[in-house]
Write a structure and sequence with these properties.
The chain has 259 residues and is of the alpha/beta class. The chain is built from 8 helices and 7 strands; from the N terminus they run E-H-E-H-E-H-E-H-E-H-E-H-H-H-E. The chain is 40% helix and 14% strand. Strand 1, helix 1 and strand 2 form a beta-alpha-beta unit.
Length: 259
């Protein structure tokens, strides 16, 4: 067992390489910035390269990579790009997601499959690529962080979506299974399950007075979340602070699921 580290160093990511998908806006952009601020070299991936370049301009430790996670070749290229540049990948944040239709009756089987492809198949493949890559002797164990949702735990009808909820619940199951399979090799796999946060995806929700009040009424803290309120949870799972934590679902929802 390694000697205890000073508390101030537990959350440091100096010398580590991180991948963040869906990093062009919202929580993904915030995740990339926070990991870079903690010292990591971050490869920020998304389809909108112009936005990624704006993000990279804010911190030299952030490197933009155009990537459509629905495409297998793009996923492989993302991991290869990071490894070619730094020789390692220590942290993977599977954040990219598609929302799908709200009403199950409006969603075709093909559309349902497309959402699962982005939200579940892509995270699985990226996690496998990262876990299978060789590591240096003495390197810290890898951390895979799947961004699930409270909609993978409870229904949010009438605002939910069948494909989205199914994919986020599947991501929770995938997290636990991969944690079980890869734990002996030192790769930790955990999930973050955010509640209602103000992002590009939820802009219409919070812009509507009725739905905004619905969120406030059903959240114990009586408000939606702000992006920075996930910073601590992300750093905990990415860093050595959670070195004995795997297969867990860390819910950050203002008390929504505790009702």
């Amino acid at each position: 067992m390694n000697a205890p580290r000073p508390a101030a160093e537990l959350f440091s990511l100096r010398g580590r390489t991180a991948l963040v998908t869906g990093a062009s806006a919202g929580l993904g952009a915030r995740f990339a910035a926070v990991l870079a601020q903690a010292g990591a070299t971050v490869f920020a991936a998304a389809r909108r390269l112009d936005r990624l370049k704006e993000l990279a301009d804010s911190d030299p430790r952030i490197h933009p990579v155009a990537c459509d996670v629905s495409q297998e070749a793009d996923r492989t290229r993302l991991v290869d790009t990071a490894r070619a540049a730094t020789g390692r990948v220590d942290i993977l944040v599977n954040n990219a997601a598609a929302s799908g239709e709200t009403r199950a009756e409006d969603e075709s089987p093909d559309a349902f499959a497309e959402v699962l492809g982005v939200n579940l198949t892509a995270p699985f493949h990226l996690a496998r690529l990262v876990a299978e890559a060789p590591t240096e002797d003495g390197a810290p164990g890898r951390s895979v962080i799947n961004i699930s949702s409270i909609l993978g735990l409870v229904t949010a009808a009438p605002l939910g979506g069948a494909s989205y909820s199914a994919s986020k619940a599947g991501l929770i199951g995938l997290t636990r299974e991969l944690a079980g399979q890869w734990g002996p090799g030192g790769t930790r796999v955990n999930a973050l399950a955010p509640g209602w946060f103000r992002t590009e995806m939820t802009a219409d929700l919070f812009a509507d007075e009725r739905s905004s009040r619905w969120v406030e009424r059903n959240t114990l803290l009586r408000r939606g979340g702000e992006g920075q309120e996930l910073d601590g949870a992300l750093l905990f799972l990415a860093s050595d602070a959670s070195s004995y934590c795997t297969g867990q679902i860390l819910t950050v929802d203002g008390g929504w699921t505790a009702r």
